[in-house]
Amino acid sequence: MVETENVQTDRALKEVGTAFERTSVFWLTNFSHAVNHFQNQMVAVLYVVIMPELDFGYQDLGILTAVMILMGGVTQGFYGFVTPFVPRAWLLGIGNIVMGLGTLATGWVGSYGAFLGTRAVSATGGSAQHPVGSSLLVSYFPTRIGTVLSFNMSFSNIGSLLAPITAGLMLLILDWRHIFMIVAALSIVMGAAYFLFRDRVGAADRASQTSRVKLARGKASYIRALRNRNVLLVSLVMAVGGAGRDMGVNLAFLGPHFSNDLGFTTTMVAIALTAMQAGGIIGPFALGWLSDRVSRKAVVQGSLILSCVATLWLAYQGAFLPMLLLNLVFYGMVTRSRLTLTQAIVSDSMPDADRDAAFSVFFFLGVITSPFWAWLVGFLMENLGFTFAFSVMGFSYLIGITLMLFVKDTKIAPSLQTAS
Fold first, then answer.
1. Which one, of 172, 173, 160, lies nearest residue 41 by Cα?
2. DSSP symbol at 354
3. pLDDT band at 350, cuts 50/70/90?
4. For a 10 Å CB count at each end of the chain, is N or C smaller?
5. What pLDDT score does 312 carry?
């Protein structure tokens, strides 16, 4: 624990940038993350009309989701090598523009294969948001890691909250292709905004070091991250518990389940998904705030236990709307909290110099099993039904709970939490 305590002490003693710069990076990162989530989450409603038109089923949907997760997840593993050469703000700008172009192209597709291709491009563009955006935030707010990361996730979930109901309303007057074309502009605008921001963190090193030194430094950071027990364990918690970053599975299968199995209209599907996203706004911020004040490890373990309960409840919940909405709010609160809580443990466990590599390793390992989970849930739903598929997801949290027993607690001392 000495190394972790030194990391926290070093961070408490320094401020980065001016107040204006910190405010700018805070809100720019939050808004772009919200736009990223909006673009991803709106398809949960649009799948209801896209699947019949392009003629694909649950198993094809599982393959589509697996490919998107694979493209987004693999690229996340390399940003630690890129950041010594390219400012993080530029990486986020390029990523958002690529995501917007992929979304724009989706509006022109005429087959399942083309749809899969454009969604893969969009997922690749969006891959920078979590590792690079999180690293950028932590570098400017080193003494409020849990609160800042959890607020970023909660704010991004406002985009998730607005996506299903907005997409449902737009479907009343627009074709799904036009919706993709219109919302693509949001990502392109956010991407352009990043080029107006000057990222001071690491600028001196990028200017003074040779390419060989930068590569050697990046390699050393990756080695230290891969040797850090906490980084590896919490990455595995993300990988095994509840289908990795489970929103890929939720995004793909909940909308079609509500429509095909429960008989909901498109509007009711949008309302149900909106309830889940509402919980996703409250949960991450509340639990992230709590983790800055008590044991992070205990908060993560509590959220995993509640996630198991919520997922099993959802697996057996029928079409009775009041109970379904209550379940979905609870489900969103606890399942959406795991990402920010585990991120905070990773950040606490590694020094600032290794932060980019640590987040890259975390997000890469955390999603490496998600393509398999997406395919498996699609296969199980196609052959054994929704209840069986989501019961498997629910029980998978038990593995994550077990792994957390071996994680060293990274609780920040109260004196450091209040440092400014």
1. 160
2. G
3. confident
4. C
5. 92
SS (H, E, C) 100-142: HHHHHHHCCCCCHHHHHHHHHHHHHHHCCHHHHHHHHHHHHCC
Q: Which long-range contacts (CB under 8 A, 24 or more apart) does 23-28 make?
A: 24/197, 25/89, 25/136, 25/137, 25/140, 25/197, 25/199, 26/137, 26/140, 26/141, 26/148, 28/190, 28/193, 28/194, 28/197
Task: Say if residue 319's pLDDT is above 90.
Answer: no
Please answer whether residues 196 and 125 qualify as being in contact, where contact means their C-beta atoms are separated by less than 8 angstroms: no
Q: At what angle do helices 211-227 and 355-367 cross, to 10 degrees?
A: 60
Please say whether the beta carbons of 24 and 141 come within 8 A: no
Tell me the H-state helices in 292-337. 296-316, 321-335
Rounded to the nearest angstrom, the gap between the alpha carbon of residue 18 and the centroid of all alpha carbons in its chain is 28
pTM across the whole model: 0.68
Cβ neighbours of 265 (radius 10 Å): 12
Q: Give me the half-sphere count of Cα atoms (radius 13 Å) on the Cβ side of residue 298.
A: 7
196 DSSP 8-state letter:
T
How many angstroms separate the CA atoms of 215 and 84, rounded? 8
Is the separation of the CB atoms in 123 and 71 below 8 Å? Answer: yes
Q: Is 332 helix (H, G, I), strand (E, B) or coil?
A: helix
Residue 19 neighbours by CB under 8 Å, 6+ apart: none
Angle, alpha carbons 146-152-154 (nearest 5°): 100
